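$ ./design --mode recover --in tokens.txt
reading tokens...
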């Protein structure tokens, strides 16, 4: 017997090996093996088995198996094949991305002790008087009903272990030792004891999806529900049904460390069958979790984009929450896959229900729903009928004229409303989608802007640490120069506004307010983030200030004012999705206000009040804006009206890069009708990380190339073969299928 093996190298070729007799039973398609490649021993994946070979010459033997269990079932294997073909990435490379490096890594999850209530005993009153700490613990446990980790009681009493052991001796509680499963976020949630009775509109959706689950057929749907409409409760119910059928579920979140609340709610309901999967896991925990999933101990996986490749068997349900989020797209390395699209393909292969969900769907999914490719499930009302917020748009040009002050960060109206909430002891969320202190250090005389030497992008000034930083490559410049490098003027000025500057102004203006800032600079770990969110939830913080990471998925009862300090951020970037993104951000942020009984208000500050993006976002009029955006896309032949591919060339020498790009363009003369080629042209960020960048954008109109086959055949022929080598150290080429941005 012979095996074809793919290796994680940038070659599309596979290699033939002989299977030694003692491994014949174990070598199957999809297993990982060690085999000699050149002079090295390399891990590869068996792609196919045959009993004949055309190979002339001496064949080498497979040396050993990497894993002691079969890791991929047929559908998952098929999915990797599809990913490889669709995203033009060698199969071995896809397999490496989708699997942990080695499954043999030893990881032993620590044990932990849990305690559960049994009874109050015969004489609780005496206990209460004599041993108040014991009584407190007992009362808490009886309220919670489920086992609680000893460590979680340390807010209640100082020595929970001691006290629980004393209670156990009296037979009032029971202590058990359990394996403690790795927790991705460090966020444990008290089980929520809440009775869920679905509203009529929730029930309609659940019924449709339950039917689909019962039929066990591919069923793709778009759940379009405003924030707070009860989508998460629907997911929870669907997962419950899926598990009852003996099947499994994947729930994708845009960035697990940013959505601890949802993860917490799932853990609270499904307990230890839930695995969390994300990029910040250590490789040991990753391997261990992977193994548990293979073994069937985990039945629900919640995670960021790569969770879509986890080896759950019998997959019944995939939920993609906030499906419009760009973090679902892998930007590098290859394969540059989009987890939402992979989810749809996996659903198709596994006969699963796939729910794409959002308050602000991507234009693609919105369009697919119009086309009937996704079943549309609208949820138009907020749960419990909480009212929509009142939105105020402040024209900052007018503000400038009225006050005579330039570059005001806060309008009079926003300041007034902040003060009002502070007086009423209600909470405030402020969005400023730019971190650092000031985005630009500019010479007041010649206008020169301080740039990153690697990227040719403006450096951002950070007041903490008194340093300039490039937000693309991380380059740090210290000390901050005090002379203009161009004209030697001392007249250097900070321009623009980042979160740190806003923070300073707030501290000055409202010295008594308790303020917290959330952005990449303050949340290096998931823990810091969850701590801040917890404090905000419990009312220890009055004002939460942050970048886009505060705009989504958070649910706070007492937050009744949302301020968007500069709604125009990103509006004029030369990207076909710029408007869509700004719209979604404003719309989502506005949804943070008054989600519960208290009515909410939103203040949007802008220099472009007439811009359709701002105008419709402020009216919370999604349909109208999406219609405008779709007709623009149609006119310009952008996705979703065309299949798009971005081809980037980069390297250290500008000329080499440009020559190769032009060369590639010339080789693409075999253009089929309906294929439009833009460029090559320098990228918007022409220099990034010491590289020069050029790009071409290919657009195949969908009326001419209905299912993208023409384009795909074209790409296979031109980009994977010998015609254009993808590796050329002087001018490397990247092929990005369905780009989320062309910046
Ligand atoms: P979304 O995910 O759409 O933002 P959630 O599922 O988080 O909305 O629901 C918002 C709030 O309403 C949550 O506190 C949730 O527990 C509650 N809720 C939603 N549906 C119900 C229901 N049927 N019964 C009770 N509470 C509900
Ligand atoms: Zn100057
Ligand atoms: Zn840089």
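writing sequence...
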């Amino acid at each position: 017997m012979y095996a074809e093996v793919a290796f994680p190298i940038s070659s599309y070729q596979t290699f033939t090996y002989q299977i030694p007799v003692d491994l014949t039973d174990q070598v199957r398609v999809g297993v990982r093996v060690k085999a000699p490649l050149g002079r090295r021993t390399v891990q590869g994946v068996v792609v196919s088995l045959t009993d004949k070979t055309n190979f002339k010459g001496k064949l080498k033997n497979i040396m050993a198996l990497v894993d002691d269990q079969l890791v991929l079932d047929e559908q998952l294997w098929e999915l990797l094949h599809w990913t490889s073909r669709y995203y033009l990435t060698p199969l071995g490379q896809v397999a490496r991305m989708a699997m942990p490096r080695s499954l043999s890594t030893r990881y032993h999850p620590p044990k932990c002790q849990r305690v559960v209530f049994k009874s109050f005993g015969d004489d609780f009153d005496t206990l209460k008087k004599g041993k108040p700490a014991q009584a407190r613990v007992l009362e808490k446990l009886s309220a919670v009903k489920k086992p609680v980790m000893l460590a979680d009681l340390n807010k209640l009493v100082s020595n929970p272990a001691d006290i629980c052991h004393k209670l156990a001796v009296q037979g009032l509680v029971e202590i058990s030792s359990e394996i403690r499963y790795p927790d991705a976020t460090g966020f444990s949630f008290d089980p929520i004891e809440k009775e869920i009775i679905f509203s009529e509109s929730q029930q309609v959706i659940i019924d449709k999806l339950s039917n689909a689950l019962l039929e066990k057929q591919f069923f793709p749907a778009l759940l379009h529900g405003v924030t707070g409409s009860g989508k998460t409760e629907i997911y929870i119910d669907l997962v419950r049904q899926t598990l009852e059928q003996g099947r499994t579920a994947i729930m994708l979140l845009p960035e697990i460390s940013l959505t601890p609340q949802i993860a917490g709610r799932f853990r609270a309901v499904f307990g230890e069958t839930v695995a969390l999967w994300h990029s910040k896991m250590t490789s040991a925990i990753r391997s261990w979790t992977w193994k548990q999933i293979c073994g069937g101990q985990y039945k629900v996986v919640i995670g960021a984009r790569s969770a879509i490749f986890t080896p759950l068997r019998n997959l019944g349900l995939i939920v993609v929450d906030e499906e419009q989020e760009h973090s679902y797209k892998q930007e590098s390395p290859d394969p540059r896959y989009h987890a939402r699209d992979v989810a749809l393909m996996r659903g198709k292969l596994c006969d699963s229900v796939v729910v794409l969900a959002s308050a602000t769907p991507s234009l693609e999914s919105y369009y697919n729903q119009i086309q009937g490719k996704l079943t549309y499930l609208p949820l138009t009302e907020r749960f419990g009928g909480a009212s929509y917020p009142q939105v105020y748009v402040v024209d900052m040009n007018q503000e400038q004229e009225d006050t005579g002050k330039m570059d005001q960060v806060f309008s009079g109206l926003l300041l007034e409303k902040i003060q009002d909430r502070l007086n009423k002891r209600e909470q405030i969320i402020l969005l400023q989608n730019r971190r650092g202190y000031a985005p630009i250090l500019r010479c007041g005389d010649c206008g020169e802007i301080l740039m990153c030497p690697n990227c040719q992008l403006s450096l951002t000034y950070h007041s903490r640490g008194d340093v300039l930083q490039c937000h693309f490559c991380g380059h740090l410049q210290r000390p901050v120069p005090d002379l203009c490098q161009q004209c030697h003027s001392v007249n250097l000025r900070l321009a623009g506004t980042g979160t740190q500057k806003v923070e300073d102004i707030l501290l000055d203006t409202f010295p008594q307010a308790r303020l917290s800032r959330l952005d990449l600079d303050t949340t290096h770990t998931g823990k810091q983030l969850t701590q801040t969110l917890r404090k905000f939830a419990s009312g220890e913080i009055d004002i939460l200030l942050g970048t886009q990471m505060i705009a989504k998925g958070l649910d706070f009862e007492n937050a009744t004012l949302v301020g968007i300090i500069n709604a125009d951020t990103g509006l004029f970037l030369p990207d076909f999705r710029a408007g869509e993104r700004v719209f979604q951000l404003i719309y989502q942020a506005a949804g943070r206000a008054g989600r519960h009984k208290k009515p909410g208000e939103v203040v949007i500050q802008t220099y472009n009040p007439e811009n359709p993006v701002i105008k419709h976002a402020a009216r919370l009029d999604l349909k109208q804006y999406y219609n405008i955006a779709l007709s623009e896309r149609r006119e310009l032949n952008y996705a979703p009206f065309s299949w798009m591919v971005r081809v980037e060339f980069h390297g250290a020498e500008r000329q080499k890069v440009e020559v190769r790009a032009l060369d590639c363009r010339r080789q693409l003369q075999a253009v089929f009708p309906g294929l439009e080629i833009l460029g090559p042209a320098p990228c918007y960020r022409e220099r990034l990380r010491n590289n020069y960048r050029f790009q071409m954008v290919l657009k195949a109109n969908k009326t001419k190339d209905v299912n993208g086959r023409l384009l795909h055949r074209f790409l296979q022929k031109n980009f994977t073969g010998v015609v254009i080598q993808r590796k050329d150290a002087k001018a490397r080429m990247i092929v990005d299928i369905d780009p989320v941005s062309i910046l």
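exit 0
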